[in-house]
User: Fold this.
Amino acid sequence: MELKIRQLEVFKAVMETGSVTAAAARLNCTQPAVSVALSKFERSSGLSLFDRTRGRFAPTPEGEALYSEVERGLSSLARITGKARELREGRVGHLMIAADGVSRLLAVVVAEFQRRHGDVTVEMFLRNSKEIVTWVGSQQLDVGIVEMPVHWPGVAYEPFTQRCVCIVPADHPLADRAVITPADLVGEPLIGIADHHPIDTQVSDAFQDAGVRSMSRVAGAYFETCRLLVQAGAGVAVVDAITGDDTIGGGVVARPFEPAISYDMAIVTPARPGPSPLARLFVDEVRATLERFRGD
Assistant:
């Protein structure tokens, strides 16, 4: 028995309107088309669904019994179709994402993404870049944000660069400077990133080139940790521009640091079969956030 969706729709319309004429009007088709579809449905089901004797046109007991199942089936199909559309358009679903170091970037992106896609659940992780690319390559993560250089098979990379800023307490004398240089930081406790981070290397080179010495006594695991330490008055730090954003308050002021310190990163997604539609929407949000901060 092969039943077609159109036949089910015709049968339902006839049952609900009570006539072929009214069903044709509801379905925006001709009466002969309704009659043909109804006859095919009866042949396919092997049932007599309507009593057509002596000018009557009324559902048989079999027709009445089948109607409730057809109604449920078409409702389920509509829900399936709607769910597929929502998934395709990124309105529902589940995302697993991770970042190395830039927890504030991830938080800003997720917050904006949730405003646009409130029915999507998001799980966030902070991991090192090697772990992230490994998980993305094995499709355990949908999207990752990693520090470059790092490479792994089965992963697609979209590089981007952030310019770093120097953050100081809002009541610090350097908060009034338009630009902060290594010479300005002589004698200031400089908060670094642990494990010989590439940003620390660039900052050390900048001090060496300027012929001055830095005073590094505290190291944080992440940029956000460095910001919290600056807020607490433990010193000053050079961090990525989003972590250093002073519009979010917290008693911290961000100023450009010269010479320029660049933070090279990448958005990573599975190379094959490629990111899901939902992951692509999330990547779009990452791009938009980065562009917004570049504009600022």
In short: The chain has three domains: 5-88, 92-160+264-295, 161-263. The chain has nine helices and eleven strands.
